[in-house]
Amino acid sequence: MKTARLIFAGLLLAGLSGCDAGGDFSDLQAYMDEVRARPKGAIEPLPKFQPYEAFTYSAASLRSPFQPPVKIDLASQKKGSKDIKPDETRVKQFLEGFNIETFVMVGTLSNEAGMFALVQGAGGVHRVKVGDYLGRNHGRIVAINEGQIDVVEIVPDGEGGWLERPRSLTLKERS
């Protein structure tokens, strides 16, 4: 047992003798001298980043180039009339400042004064009656019933005349 202790102590001394404190550290000393010689306080400025610029795809409403063009028969196209035209002298109503596509019929009200429709859009729910105007294309409400609002719009035909275009807003029930 005494011999095992002596062998263990000998191996321990042999292992510790490899850790010589008087080794050559010239490369480490050269690197430390180089670091100390650098100018102090010279920090590179942060790179300038370009702000993000949003891109709006403006051709979304155009015909897809991968679809064949639509052939329009100009002879069968409806011609406008010089007799039909919007009344530019009347005072515009509030709901004429918005596209008719933004409105949804959400209900009806009726009393002794008549039937009213409730349309949602333009930031809230609005009560309209027959004769009111709706949308940017001079859309006049001509009929209101339980399930829909009938509107007649006056739109230009592209050749100096005007066309009456019927539209309907149907009741949107909760889903």
Automatic annotation (TrEMBL):
PROSITE patterns named in the record: PROKAR_LIPOPROTEIN
Signal peptide: 1-21
InterPro entries attached to this UniProt entry: PilP
Pfam families: PilP (PF04351)
Alphabetic keyword roster: Signal
Keyword match Ribosomal protein: no
Name recorded for this polypeptide: Type IV pilus assembly protein PilP
Source organism: Pseudomonas indica
